[in-house]
Structure prediction request, 367 residues.
Amino acid sequence: MTLSSSFNGLFSPVAMGALKLANRIVMAPLTRSRMGPDGVPNEMHARYYAQRASAGLIISEATNISAQGRGYALTPGIWTDEQVAGWKKVTDAVHAAGGLIVCQLWHVGRFSHVDLQPDGAAPVAPSAIRAEGQTYTENGMLDVSMPRALETSEIPGIIQQYRHAAECAQRAGFDGVEVHSANSYLLDQFLRDSTNQRNDEYGGSIENRSRLPLEVTAAVVEVWGHDRVGIRLSPVTPDAGNTPLDSQVMQTYGHLIEQLNRFQLAYMHFVEGATATSRSVPTGIDLDALRALFKGPYIGNNNYDLDLAVNRRLEGKVDAVAFGRPFIANPDLVHRLKTGAELAVAPRETYYGNGAKGYTDWPALVD
Ligand code: 8OZ
Prediction:
């Protein structure tokens, strides 16, 4: 036993709203690109998630809320009856193994390609500003397409997509949902003045740019109740699309977080730094100060290891810690952290695609 692993602050139960976590190790959402074209999970995906059910909470891989919300081939959806039935296999398997799982609700906004969109339409965005980079399509990696700006009259339809997906997640037996308002996808695109140049009530002021994330949260809370809804934010993450940060990160995200407090959400899941890349933040930005504005359970995320998790718990900075990549090769990550066991490291080429290989074939230390 190391000093770190003997510290019980990570392995004690914690309530996040109505979610009663057995420990404070959360499985972060991990895109694994192993779905078919219909985005329907099957027994293989159920097995993968059930293998990881000793996490205090599993956050599903980012899951498209609509055909329009898709930005990558081989990702799952949560808007058709077939997808609901597929996810039911996953949630049943996780529950049978004693775990909890929420569905991460995802709309990529501008970060898509016409090949991934219904009828080859342009991806939708707050403003017609193209993202940088390529995405994975059925025809390989392609530059993301030029988006079109949503009409104000289309916004209720976007909120309806989230509402419908939230209802589908309920029918699929999830324990709750997480609003994906991070990583420069649709809701983050509305928040940032770099991607939002609208002049209606969804653009301009910080209040206006926060409106869509807040209206989406309100709609999802109506479906699920406030205590089964979480939200993910990443104020200093450029990707997807090498998206410039907001020009006033502290004010913009500070306003959003203060407004989120009125919902009394189950949790805020916060990327401390640039997602999966670095924990450093630009000068003048203090993510712990933003964290402190949130009046509710807090899940810290980004490049954590056991020592950092222990230290942040000891300092009272986090209620729980989300681990992403370590869960790929260590289905029993909680047990390994608790006993100080060595962690297996998943090679990058196992992250995406390839079916069961590098997915469900990582053994636990003890069965
Ligand atoms: C990795 C690859 C594709 C998508 C995110 C949903 O960054 C993602 C994602 C991650 O939130």
User: Anything to note?
Assistant: The chain has one domain: 11-301. The chain has eleven helices and 15 strands.
